[in-house]
Specification:
The chain is α/β, with parallel strands linked by helices. It is 25% helix and 34% strand. The strands form five sheets. The chain has a five-stranded parallel β-sheet with strand order 2-1-3-6-7. The protein has a five-stranded antiparallel β-sheet with strand order 12-11-10-14-13, with no helix packed on it. A hairpin with a 4-residue loop joins strand 13 and strand 14.
Length: 240
């Protein structure tokens, strides 16, 4: 297993590495990073990864400032001394939330969760991109091909897909980050925490603020706004 360690505390990093080696002797740490800037630089030319282990509070800010700008290639195991982030981390493909100080037994529990998740829901770099959604309508199950979806939005605890005919469908999937990881990143882009769009849905783009854009899409009556941390990545995505 190849893993990336994002940790700015020396003792915490050493402990994690020791636990990882004990759990899986052939595990290889690809790199150890300690700041948001280093994380963003690393993913400019990323290496294949099976797991990211990440602290939340780094030397120059929270790790979320980096993760929300990336197309994450694998699950993330969060390790932090703060308990207030446990709901927030599951927007970023979190497999578990280790609260420092944790024991080896707790670490093995988290790694077991990772193995179970791999069996139940392989990530796209191993299993290919998602091709269709199953939609429940009354007593029926209908098939909605991914290529017919223009917009996916998180609303009221559910994910709603808008198709080419502007019809809306409540998806069986409930986690936008996990769904994002299953879709072709050349076709779909996540503008912010709640809006995931298809490239063919983009009608026009306008400046909104210094750090964000207003994106007008087929299937949406209102402009969708890029988060300030996603705007640069959106421009690159449009220009690929």
């Amino acid at each position: 297993m190849r893993y990336l360690l994002i940790e700015d505390e020396v003792l915490a990093a050493e402990k994690l590495q020791a636990f990882m080696t004990r759990y899986q002797p052939d595990a290889r740490m690809v790199a150890q990073l300690s700041s948001v800037a280093q994380v963003l630089a690393f993913f400019q030319a990323p290496e294949p990864l099976d797991l990211i282990v990440a602290d939340v509070e780094l030397t120059d800010g929270q790790v979320f400032h980096a993760l929300e700008r990336l197309q994450l290639p694998c699950p993330v195991l969060f390790s932090t001394a703060y308990d207030q982030y446990w709901m927030q981390v599951f927007q970023y493909q979190a497999v578990d939330y280790l609260l420092k100080p944790y024991t080896y037994s707790r670490f093995t529990e988290a790694m077991s969760n990772l193995e179970q998740r791999r069996l139940q829901q392989p990530f796209h770099h191993k299993a290919g991109f998602k091709k269709r959604f199953l939609i429940r309508q009354s007593q029926q199950l209908l098939v909605l091909p991914v290529e017919q979806v223009w917009l996916i939005q998180a609303a009221g605890g559910a994910l709603v897909a808008t198709d080419l005919q502007a019809r809306q469908h409540v998806l069986q999937e409930t986690n936008l980050s996990e769904l994002e990881a299953q879709l072709d990143p050349q076709q779909f882009f996540r503008l912010n925490r709640s809006d995931l769009i298809h490239i063919d849905a983009v009608l026009r783009i306008e400046s909104y603020t210094k750090d964000s854009l207003a994106v007008y899409c087929a299937g949406s009556k209102e402009a969708l706004l890029t988060s300030k941390t996603r705007t640069a990545a959106f421009r690159r995505w449009l220009n690929q």
